Amino acid sequence: MFQGNHPLTIDAKGRIMIPARYRDVLLEGAKGELTFTCNFDGGLLVYPRAQWESKLEEIMRLPANRASVKRTLLGNAFDVDIDKAGRVLIPAQLRERASLDKDVVLVGMGRHFDLWDAAKYEALVAVDLEAGLPDDLDDFSL
């Protein structure tokens, strides 16, 4: 399970270093294979390839009136590999689409990661904390 947030820097070639606590798991369990795609909030989704393939099956089962969801998720999906130094290249189109320039945050979301521009992530978290739990989660206990 992936959790926590990790401030990272995109290098001049568009790569990030996968945090050490996840690197071995991803290299062994996922063969170093990841899939990047857009999310609907302005960041990126990062899946270990096997997790993405399961999600891909779910996406493909969406009804025809959800073609825009398929187009966004599948049309922006890129398969990448972690290199020997533990780095991964973020495709240029996705860096541009998510406004990822230098300072980013990799956020563990259980079975996948979100990747955000650092300033955008901090603003999003501030709004989320201010808003509190949504009304439909009143019964949810922490």
Automatic annotation (TrEMBL):
Record-given protein name: Transcriptional regulator MraZ
Residue ranges constituting the SpoVT-AbrB domain according to the UniProt record: 5-51, 77-120
Taxonomic lineage: Bacteria, Pseudomonadati, Pseudomonadota, Betaproteobacteria, Burkholderiales
Keywords: Cell cycle, Cell division, Cytoplasm, DNA-binding, Repeat, Transcription, Transcription regulation
Species, as recorded: Oligella urethralis DNF00040
Entry GO CC: cytoplasm; nucleoid
Subunit structure: Forms oligomers.
NCBIfam families, per database record: division/cell wall cluster transcriptional repressor MraZ (TIGR00242)
Major subcellular location class: cytoplasm
Cellular compartment(s): Cytoplasm, Nucleoid
